[in-house]
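Hey team,

Filing this mostly as a record. A colleague (T.K.) asked me to run one chain through the structure pipeline before their review meeting, and I want the input and output archived in the tracker in case anyone asks later how it was produced. No errors, nothing strange. Just documentation.

Input sequence:
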Amino acid sequence: MEENTNPMRNVQICGQREIADHLMLYPNQDRTRLLKEQTENLEEWLYQDEKTELELAYWIPKYIRMRGNTKFAAMGEMSATMRLIAESQDKIGWRRFTEVCISKEFHRRQTFFLQMTNNRLNGKVWTKQLISRLLQITHSQWIYRNISLHDRSNGYLRNKTAKT
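Output structure:
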């Protein structure tokens, strides 16, 4: 594997390397607030128009809020089908979930649910929309990180340079 030589890639603001593993876990108050708001937006979308199977709508935001501290399957009492989904996602992992690598079981469960309802969505469209919304959450964390690092007037690097 070729090592990235970009000097900004591993800038340390909090004493840890700012990489994908760390990004969604960083306990910064503003990042945490942003994650909370974004997760609430996702949750609203999941419940909107009764488009999402109820267990999926309940557990997906909870999994995000746990920030990888607990395995999906260990988060509480769930149906056998939901446990299968959770265990499948646990094999993929939290970090990969935040990179929008989700278990195919989400799609299967949601497709079955939509086939049983009068909703005009299908499982493929719903899954694409879920992925898009998960990407928005992760991308907003990266944007926040980059602005707080590089902003010309208040960014970490600007302030660090001004002090020396």
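Quick notes for T.K.: Residues 20-163 form one domain. The mean pLDDT is 82.
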